[in-house]
Amino acid sequence: MRGDPRAAAFWLGAVAFSGAAVAAEQPLVCFGNEPSWSVDLTESGTARFATPDADPLVYRGKATRLDFLRETLWRGTSGAGRDLVVWMQDKACSDGMSDTSHPVTARVSLADGRFLAGCCRLAAATTAATPSGSVEGVEWRLVYLPGNATGGLEQLSRPITVRFEEGRARGFSGCNTFTGGYRLEGDRLTLTQLAATMMACPGPAMPIENTFHKAFSGTMRYTLEGDRLTLVGASGETFRFERQPPPRLAGVDWKVTSFNNNRHAVVGVTGDAAITLSFRDGQVSGSAGCNTFQAPYSSDGNRVQIGPAVTTRRACAESLMTQEQEFLAALASATTWSIDGNVLDMHRADEERALWAVAQ
């Protein structure tokens, strides 16, 4: 077959077809390090760009495929009118953090001038229930930290947590969020090149975080006992984690910190009066900043539907009344919710943020 142009054409076509299945048809998650970023392309027509120190940006667009180049170009626009372009080439790619080889090489261009490089991996077609005996797919809360800072864990406003999923470790270390690679081999868990945001925090958060990052690295042995995870490093330092219960929307008092003003902007709460929320017994109620309100709601998983609100009739300054109406409209527009630590994040059907709130 050597030198036969028909054979060459056949193999070129086979490679191009295989590449199209990887880069154009299969759900992909693209990612990179230094700096850390990810683009989730698992939903048709949608891309979610994220970094550890910023909120995810959602883009709507589509992919264009050139089979003879074995390349796919995804282009989309966000609600703020900003463009995202992702080039994907069917070429083996190493993430530089593990021995894993990924099937697609990626380049990402952002409207602010950033140009990023990384890999894409195939996302799982379905999300199966996580076995109770698995390290992965679970939110773990740190309850014992080696070193003198251990006693300060309970003083943190938000617990130290970590989640291991699909080769990526993500978490919160007391002050900053972090992300990096990991791999599991038998009873060994190896962490590779963790990167964190660079925010400074007061009180015990910084020394605790520094202690955590100094020891939480390299290869560790792990054991699972029910809802407890123990990691032991090469020098004998021991971490103990407990499985975090699923987040709860209901039964928590929330203080709203910002909301969507329905003009493609999320704005902070103004004035002295707090805006609050509480979901209980099929009703969401609280203070809208001037008047109290109540509305029916229903939820299914992370989906939520909120009905029209009934309010008291108190009159306040015009600015507060305007803010109140914008907040109630934002609340009614919410269709999904998620909780990260003590922060409630609700989004609209068009993926724009509806509101942010913190547990009181």
Structural class assignment = mainly beta
Largest sheet: 10 strands, antiparallel
Write down the Rg: 24 Å
Taken as a percent bin, the fraction of beta residues is over 45%
Q: How many DSSP helices?
A: 3
CA-to-CA gap between the ends?
A: 73 Å
> What is the helical fraction, as a range of percent?
10-25%
Q: Name the overall outline.
A: globular
Low-pLDDT residue intervals, each spanning 5 or more residues = 1-24, 124-132
Q: How many β strands by DSSP?
A: 28
Mean pLDDT: 83
Write structural notes for this entry.
- The protein is mainly beta and 360 residues long.
- The protein is built from three helices and 28 strands.
- The chain has helices at 5-25, 205-215, 318-333, and strands spanning 28-32, 37-41, 46-51, 54-66, 71-78, 83-89, 93-94, 101-102, 104-110, 115-122, 139-144, 161-165, 168-172, 177-185, 188-196, 218-225, 228-232, 238-243, 253-260, 266-268, 276-280, 283-287, 292-300, 303-306, 310-311, 334-340, 343-348, 353-359.
- The strands form four sheets. Strands 19, 20, 21, 22, 23, 24, 25, 26, 27 and 28 form a ten-stranded antiparallel sheet that branches. It has an eight-stranded antiparallel beta barrel with strand order 1-2-3-4-5-6-9-10. It has an eight-stranded antiparallel barrel with strand order 11-12-13-14-15-16-17-18.
- Strand 3 and strand 4 (54-66) form a beta hairpin.
- It is globular and about 65 Å long.
